[in-house]
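Lab notebook, bench 4. We co-purified these components, and the gel suggests they stay together. Before we commit to crystallization screens, I want a quick structural picture of the whole thing.
Request: model the full complex, all chains together.
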Amino acid sequence: MTSSRKHALVGLSGGVDSAVAALLLLEQGCRVTGVTMSVYDGPKASGRRTGGCYDCGEEEDIALAADMAAQLGIAHHIFGCAEQYRNVVLAYFRKTYLEGKTPNPCIRCNALVKFGLLPALAKEAGLEFDLFATGHYARAEYVARYGKQVLLCARDTRKDQSYFLYRLTQEQIDRALFPLGCLKKAEVRRLAAARGLPVHDKPDSQNFYAGDYAELVNARPQQGNIVTVDGTVLGSHMGYWRFTPGQRKGLGVAAKTPLYVLRIDPSRNEVVVGEYGESLRLSCIIGDMRRHIPLEQTDRVLMARLRSTPHFVPVTVDLSGDASGERCVVTFAEPQAGVAPGQSLVLYCDNVLVGGGIIGAD
RNA sequence: UGGGAUGUAGCCAAGGGGUAAGGCAACGGGUUUUGAUUCCGUCAUCCGAAGGUUCAAAUCCUUCCAUCCCAG
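Here is the predicted assembly.
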């Protein structure tokens, strides 16, 4: 491009964050086009919605996104992604739970649908753009010492969402733009209010699905036992796929101390529980890795997140066991609770996202 | 049937004359783009039942009921 005026495609969800992202890009002088994906293809249910990604009331959000685009004076396009979403996210969600593991649909969706299919469809539709922006609280910046564009934590690490983005490819990172990366949520709302955007006080959406997860797994309820490590039966449940390691609430089992899910045994439909101490683990195997920065280039202690929470644990990573570099063993400085197969472990060096992978079954 | 023991919320469990701890579960809420974690709040007008003693009892007495264990 000869023009210095960049053209940014912005994923508008209908919420405050993406609207403010678009607003900021306009203020920076970008050409901006809004795009929204439609992913729901389930029953046209009740219409009662609480704000999930896969939500039977998504038309409302799409309409909000369109309104927002109109208010900002930018073009807006809607792309149907339901079929792919079903194949890529929902099928994965169901399969993972049935394997006795815990899926993370947001990570999968970001890499394959939101940052994958959506811009691809936009390109197919003839839209030209240099950048793809979203309202995520994260940063994508060129870092000289690594010689490329990398993902970084948002300034406000409490709100940081880079965890959900670690599976992006280098090309996706190269054109990614996160206008909210240096802002706090309150500032974003203030900006929206100042610009008169009606979504300025819209509650955050924080669910992937507003209904009963078991509906998505779509498995027939099946009674099984809740057992201790030594096999003592403490109670029963209606399907192992309703549980995740580390879970405490919802077991329905009374004991001296709180009990946590230690592991799940799909073949016996058993949920193994134990005390907090029994749930601690010092290491785990990571598979299906995505590596953004070679570990040799990191000279500081690596920190890991085992969940999207702001909690970081110092770790050491051993890649020696696997030549392909897709697997490694991660050892924690302190024993960790809630290490759940299927969940992602994401590595950071300072604020830079180094890579990550999926926690294995053992 | 004889001997022993126990009966406090859904579960476990303190309190042994002065007006029902605590834990677990459950429920409600906060945090959270994963129903995890975490945090906050609520949860026995009543202590197996009926009488009695006392200013006052879940706590003492009596009887009854239930359950468990050991005998036979």
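The longest helix of chain A spans residues 105-124. Worth comparing against the SEC data before the next meeting. The helical segments of chain A are 16-27, 58-72, 82-98, 105-124, 170-175, 185-194, 213-217.
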